[in-house]
Amino acid sequence: NFPCQEVERHNKPEVELKYVTSPELLLNPGCDIYVIVSCCPPMHFNFAHSSSQVLICRNEAEKCLIETSINSLRISLKVKQADELENILTKKFLRFLSMRAEAFEVLRRKPVQGYDISFLITNYHCEEMQKHKLIDFIVQFMEDIDKEISELKLSVNTRGRLVATEFLKQFV
Amino acid sequence: MNTDPELDRSHKEPKDGMLSEGITSAKGNFAETLPISNDKFSEGGPDNKVLSQITVSGRQCISHEGMSPSSGNIPDKPTEIDHHLYEFGSVEYHIQASLSEPNNTYLSISTPLLSQGVLLSHGLPRHTTEMFEGIPPDVLEIVEPAREGYQLTLRLDLARIPRKKDSVKMITQISSVQAAILSFQLKEILRNISNEDLSLGMYKPLKLVYHPSETFFVVKQPTKFTAVFPMRFKENTDVSIATAFFQELMDVGSSTAFAKAPPCHWSPIPPPELRGELIEDLSTNGGFVSFEISSRHVEGKKLDKTVWGVLNFYSLVKYHVKNYKVLNSHMLTPKINVKQCTRGFIQRRIRKRLQNLVERSGYYKIIVPKEVQLGYRRMRKLISLSRSKLLKGRRSLTNKIKRIGSRIKIHAFNRFRRRWLTFPRFSSVTSYTY
Which domain holds residue A70? Predict the structure, then answer.
């Protein structure tokens, strides 16, 4: 719990404010460090450690940005979108979730620019929730998004096939 | 629809796909218009909603739901009716009932032709008997010549329409007359292409208009016809869903099970057959879908189905992407049971998924565990233990002092003892807060 240093009687997540005059609050200040780690083939993760953030990229289309501060943490995700249909489904689904962010508490209403969805975890969340389970939830969420988008795309194609079949049956 | 018979309404601006009414003149009391349930009619499809709302004269009621003249909704006096109904902005229906012929209602239809360049070789009446096969002549009769300004005039005796299941079929047939006229026009086109075109060796695409803003082309080739549909959508989401649908259509059409169906192709660019057409006709965001119709698809009874499928392809795509109705018309696609559109399906699924995720997120909250609740009691025990020990220690020290205390009396020692050799009193355990 860290009251704001700039504004009296305010207590805000410092990761959202990122005051230039208080860089120490963002934690881990330092020069840029890029670490390329190959976990297991065929996945290669690029870690970029810069000032207060960690960027994990599988490729240009899939990445995860973790920004830290003294009293809060922001995790932003960019989900894989192979084609236009997946793009639209992802946008719809994640926008739907973001608009109902109050149901999840740790979800941000508007994702960080360049990403599809963002989480904001503050000290209050850490007090109310069990940390290890919170991490589990976020990991599970990421897996569920991918799975849901794939299922949606499959069902759209299945419906299209069904309608096409029925349409062509009249000619046979 | 209850109307004041003396009210003279101005003509309403017709909207695409919407029924609009203009009451030009009316006398007497109107009976209630009894809308026939229209669940089977698709929007923009062949069975339009226009003729399902027929205002009749006072003595006669048409009711799909079995209302009888004895229901009490019928005024006693016969009335005159003169209604103009518009659909899709260009199709006009004129319904007339007069006092001189109380049993008859006249329905006149004016619809733009599919193609202005092609006229029906023998006129409409030749084909109208085919349109109304199965309807007894005492119920429906074609008036020749048609009223001025209209292509077809029918005389209907609505009282003779049966009230049971056959009534639905009959009313469906009557209400789909506009679509039937256009179907016959397309059949004429497919049967009798202009010889001039063939002799020149140029197969000029024929531009046809079924609904406003939904034009398609038919190109005659030596052994087949090609129907080309430029697809346009308002939203990018619709474009993506429709593109996925067209890919599936191509896949299904190329499978062995549908070898007899017309081959279907989709391309984002105009096909070579449409070279030379206007740019505004060729500008699309959904690409071009083309069907190759060969002679076997237009032989005998298959001609009806082929023509119907071609005329309603746009409606089918719109339905799949957006519309929300069950397509159960026997004229279109017999058994599509897909009740809801793709967009609605996606929305429902996302909502359901959200509920699951919210339920799961609730499990990660801390509910204060029992150990913390017990902590208060334990602390109480600790304090009570330490207090008893303190008291014991105090007593023992006091006793020692007493034993040690000699007969030598030291001045002011008692005061010193009372002040410095007593143990502090602790506050009450019950007021300790954790």
Answer: 14-169
| Domain count along chain A | 1
Residue A35 lies in a domain: yes
Cα gap B33→B159, rounded to integer Å: 15
Share the mean pLDDT of chain B. 67
A88 lies in a domain? yes
Residue B190 CA: distances (Å) to CA of B106, B184, B299, B337, B349: 32, 10, 11, 31, 44
Chain B within 8 Å of A132 (Cβ-Cβ)? no
Which of A137, A156, A164 is facing B360, going by the closest CB pair? A137
Q: Which of B41-55, B121-135, B148-162, B296-310 has the lowest mean pLDDT?
A: B41-55
Q: Buried (b) or exposed (e) across A143-163, using 16+ Cβ within 10 A?
A: eebeebbeebbeebbebbbbb
pLDDT at residue B86 greater than cutoff 50: yes
Confirm whether A108 is domain-assigned: yes
Position with higher pLDDT, B275 vs A42? B275
- Write the pLDDT tens digit of every residue in B143-163: 888 888 888 888 888 888 777
Nearest one of B28, B143, B131 to B78, comparing CA atoms: B28
Establish if A144 touches chain B: CB-CB under 8 angstroms. Answer: yes
* A 97-126 → B contacts, CB under 8 A: 97, 100, 103-106
Within 8 A of B262 by CB-CB distance, chain A residues are 171
- CATH for A69: 3.30.1460.20
Find the helix or strand (DSSP H, E) in which B349 lies: helix B342-362
Please state the pTM of the whole predicted model.
Answer: 0.63
Q: Is B398 exposed, middle or buried (0-12, 13-18, 19+ CB in 10 A)?
A: middle
Asked if the C-beta of A39 comes within 8 angstroms of chain B's C-beta atoms, the answer is no
Is residue B246 within 8 A of residue B287, CB to CB? The reply is yes
Asked if B244's CB is within 8 angstroms of A85's CB, the reply is: yes
Please list the residues that pair with A121 across neighbouring strands. Answer: A73
**ipTM rounded to 2 decimals:** 0.75
- pLDDT band at residue B384 using 50, 70 and 90 as cut-offs: low
Residue A122 tokens read as 């503050």
Residue A165 falls within a domain, yes or no? yes
Contact B117, B42 (CB under 8 A): no
For A102, the closest chain B residue by CA position comes to B358
Give chain A positions within 8 Å (CB) of B357: 97, 104, 141, 144
**A152, A159, A166: residue with CB nearest B335:** A166
Q: Are B261 and A164 in contact (CB under 8 A)?
A: no
